[in-house]
Amino acid sequence: MDYRYLGRTGIRVSPLTLGCMMFGGRTDPDDSYAIIDRAIDAGINFLDTANVYSTGRSEVVTGEALKRNGHRDFVVLATKCHGNMHKADAPDGLAVSELHATLNPNRWGNSRRQIIEQCEASLKRLQTDYIDLYQIHRPHPACAIDETLRAFDDLVRSGKVRYIGCSTFAAYQVIESLWAAERYGLNRFVTEQPPYHILDRRIERELLPVCQSYGLGVIPWSPLAGGFLTGKYNRNETPPSDSRFGKGHPRQGILQVQRAFDVVDEVEKLAVAKGCTVSQFALAWCRDQPGVTSPIIGPRTMEQLDDNLAAMDVTLTDDDRATIDELVPPGEHVVPFYNASFGPAEHRF
């Protein structure tokens, strides 16, 4: 296993991260335990979850798996806070914005109150004394970044958190956080977790260079564009009922973008010539992009995990990368897979 340093820290992580979003939700506990065990046996030591995944069930199942297999010391365990953990309290049909208006308005965001409360809850669900990497799931511009960093700094100094990171921050927000950390003598973010894949390369414009310049590890989420880069979706056909887009995923508009299918067709040709699957090619491409530390895979089944793990044996050539650059030029995108919202709804998922 080619372990990589996580940013400028002294810890090393696997070149693929096991995303645990499906565990305890669409993937039942027993299958989740088996997937986690299989990934660890293959050398994966970086696991990423979040408090909002299945409203805490992902953390519970992940914690149970690590307790059962005894691999907590081997694993670099990451989780996140920010999102609303109380959506289930809302009456049926109530919009998220209305939910916040009718329930406690302090149940989401990046305030000190929210961070401390959710860290304690995550520690209990994960059945651990410490979190290796604790991350802010989304920006919260209305909350001063120094308040967020001070809360994180206190958690690090208490020993409950080892390192801190951010997710889906704009380049200027990363810089602002680094400035505040230096200004007030606080622990700084050591990672950023952005959306990044062949169909959306916009982070190459500013965010990746910032992370490279200031030593932040980059752990991209959705390197397969929500499963679109597996090749299982076909033009003008109803998506499989058990697939993410078949279940009404908020980003299923990608299925209406014909150029996205054109790109996948060309990637499939490259993958066939290399003797791998489309998903393996896409993961290998993301994994080896300059500045990237460890893309996050999110398998729902053991079959998907095995396919993803095989990407570690795929090596791309300069010609392969040049072909991708022709299909989707550096810094450009075919679909705006994720448009960060910095207004009143930036907390939504």
Can you give a write-up of this model?
The chain is 37% helix and 11% strand. With 349 residues, it is an alpha/beta fold. The chain has one domain (4-327): TIM Barrel, CATH 3.20.20. It is globular. Mean pLDDT is 90; it is low at 88-96 and 340-349.
Describe the protein's topology.
Elements: E1 4-5, E2 12-13, E3 17-19, H1 29-41, E4 46-48, H2 57-69, E5 76-81, H3 96-102, H4 112-126, E6 131-136, H5 145-158, E7 161-167, H6 171-184, E8 189-193, H7 207-214, E9 217-218, H8 258-274, H9 278-287, E10 296-297, H10 302-309, H11 318-327
Parallel strand pairs: 3-4, 3-10, 4-5, 5-6, 6-7, 7-8, 8-9
Antiparallel strand pairs: 1-2
Helix pairs in contact: 1-2, 2-4, 4-5, 6-7, 8-9
Comma- or semicolon-separated keywords:
349 residues; 10 strands; TIM Barrel; alpha/beta; disordered C terminus; eight-stranded parallel beta sheet; two-stranded antiparallel ribbon
How would you summarize this macromolecular structure in one to three sentences?
By secondary structure, the chain is an alpha/beta fold. It has helices spanning 29-41, 57-69, 96-102, 112-126, 145-158, 171-184, 207-214, 258-274, 278-287, 302-309, 318-327, and strands at 4-5, 12-13, 17-19, 46-48, 76-81, 131-136, 161-167, 189-193, 217-218, 296-297.
Q: From the 3D coordinates, which CATH architecture would you assign?
A: Alpha-Beta Barrel
Q: Given the structure, what is the number of helices?
A: 11
Indicate the proportion of strand residues: 5-15%
Instruction: Please bin the fraction of helical residues.
Output: 25-40%
Q: Biggest sheet: strands, sense, closure? A: 8 strands, parallel
Strand tally:
10
CATH superfamily: NADP-dependent oxidoreductase domain
Unreliable spans: 88-96, 340-349
- Gyration radius over CA: 19 Å
How far apart are the first and last residues' alpha carbons, in Å?
Answer: 33 Å
Strand order in the largest sheet = 9-8-7-6-5-4-3-10
Q: Per the principal axes of the C-alpha atoms, what is the gross shape? A: globular
Which class in CATH terms?
Alpha Beta
